[in-house]
Specification:
The chain has one domain (21-120). The longest helix has 13 residues, at 96-108. It has helices at residues 69-79, 85-91, 96-108, and strands at 21-24, 29-31, 37-39, 45-55, 59-66, 114-117. It is built from three helices and six strands. It has 130 residues and is α+β, with helices and mostly antiparallel strands. Helix content is 24%, strand content 25%. The protein is globular. A six-stranded antiparallel beta sheet has the order 1-4-5-6-2-3.
Length: 130
Amino acid sequence: MIGTHPDEEPLYECPYEVGDEVFVTGRLTVTNTVGGTTDIEHSGVDVRITWTRWDYETGWRFGGEPLKPEDVESIRRQATCEYDAEHYRREYPNNPALAESAAYAASIFNPKRTHFSEHDIAPPNAPRPR
């Protein structure tokens, strides 16, 4: 895995488990419609953790699914790129792999697949924005 050294054991137990619901107030990212990474602008998103992974450089990393439909829609809007496969076919006719990559990324785009670290999760009793 990227960011995971194969011989590195976690230095401490994972603070959360798959299925836990957390409030993410820090960096929240998603793979966008052309396959890149989009940082989501937000004031806090309730997320259910779907996977955990130790990263020897940054600590615990998580994947999660936003719980509120309005958050999913906001992520969808922010991560839908202005360029699509047709743009790449038109602008880069000698590089069809760009268009193929963009078409594939659009076909698997899912605004419910978010990524964040343990440092992006608010403490359980932290105040929430209104």
